[in-house]
């Protein structure tokens, strides 16, 4: 074992999540901001689901200004599966970008770093494959203001 | 936004972790098994650190038999940084493989699925880059019995 | 230090929480059931607040059948405070009681054990006292079916 | 339901915990300090157990200066039970008190507020009663410096 990798990281596209932000984020204090959503969707080659409540992100600001995602999401598929999604993640966004976003700008992964790490839990046999994968999400778009939403692509790590 | 990805997932090798298992895992009940470690190392192009206590994994077994990692690790570098590492993850291992491992066999990522998603926290300016990345770990080796350890490669997601 | 207490536990009534259950609980699998609420209230001698989204309980069933509360709640007061509440807890309820509740029965602390342990977080100076207390909640009423809700009294531990 | 309690909080002494601090706390950044312990004991009318690794507290400092306990502890009884303990909690301690403690002073619940909320998990039938109770811990003594430890009384809430 030396300090070079002996494994190869591979990934597979699983789905895209699109979550409208329900209303202005709730600022608890300088270290905690709460977002929530009760609609939106998750679509991919093997899934077509709605985001339902309870879905929220209890976003923490670390002393160095980086953000830590702490999110829980509920998905319901057309064929009756309830899927619990939980994820941490890391966001880097400058104060200027944050302000622009609040004024309605749309940011993408070219502008900001926004990567999450979802895991899934469900008893529905058609979605057992979701229980078996550590996923990673990468922001596709983040828009603030009226009609604000976040979209990210979810990849399964292999 | 359709159900194809608009982003590209990339990764960069950060370090390899090597954590001897301190003693036999502690079985709390059918849903929770606790491992801990108080030595080992993390080495990579930009880091050379020791694993110190408290470091443990409170591994949960879901009803479908897949495992969920719930780990907290403390790293200390030669130049005095204290780095808090926290990660979830997903493990798939068959009862036969688990038994073989307990008897001293070494498993690799060819045998089992064992992927984690670490995030890091530190105030040391030389390691600020760790605060800014969502990482993914992939098992390199998992050995049970005497001299048991787990090793995994850590990649930063971009 | 012997095995008798050297401290005295005291408590003070802080508020009563009344949370209508928004809809039927979402059963993820045999170990996880999700409840959520987006209305209700918290009232006490020093607080009058509304329960808002995101508010949910990700209730886990342990192998021995006891339940573990894992809840996050958001409160908004009339004078503009946003208060984040997070709590674990323990519930003991028999299958017969659970079935009766689902059919609309109201249970109280005479029937079931339902005790939670909330902590609060807010930046609003009028509610700084909430940041400074570990609280305990005891179920006052739990009603299932149409018009279902949970109510509990919250006491600050001293 | 009005803003007076309809329930009565009662409690029962369960045990006293005595946890030597293994070494100087590890300061991650301004918001996170890690303590750990790998010895100590839990004694009460119905339990006599040793504290073993992994046991730690990932103590968070909120923006208002109050502290949030985030602890995981492992207990092992003489008759072979493994008991997982997890607890949050709230600590209020002044900078002066913190400094005095670091220099070796012993503080008690007359000096500081230090209340935790443990829950327990075990499969051992003789300790099934621990699975069924939300507990509260109150600091009995907190000593820093050489020979430092924390002791608290644990009460079951009824």
From TrEMBL, chains A, B, C, D:
Pfam families to which the protein is assigned, alphabetical: DUF3237
Superkingdom of this protein's organism: Bacteria
Stated name of the protein: DUF3237 domain-containing protein
């Amino acid at each position: 074992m030396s300090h070079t990798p002996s494994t190869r990281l591979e990934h597979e596209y699983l789905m895209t999540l699109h979550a409208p932000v329900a209303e202005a984020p709730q600022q608890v204090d300088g270290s905690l901001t709460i977002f929530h959503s009760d609609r939106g969707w998750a679509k991919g080659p093997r899934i077509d689901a709605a985001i339902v409540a309870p879905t929220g992100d209890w976003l923490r600001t670390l002393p160095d200004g980086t953000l830590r995602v702490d999110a829980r999401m509920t998905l319901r598929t057309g064929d009756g599966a309830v899927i619990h999604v939980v994820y941490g993640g890391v966001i880097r966004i400058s104060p200027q970008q944050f302000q622009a976003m609040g004024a309605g700008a749309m940011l993408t992964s070219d502008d900001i770093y926004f990567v999450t790490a979802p895991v899934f839990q469900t008893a529905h046999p058609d979605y057992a494959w979701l229980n078996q994968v550590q996923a990673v999400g990468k922001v596709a778009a983040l828009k603030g203001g009226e009609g604000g939403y976040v979209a990210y692509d979810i990849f399964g790590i292999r």
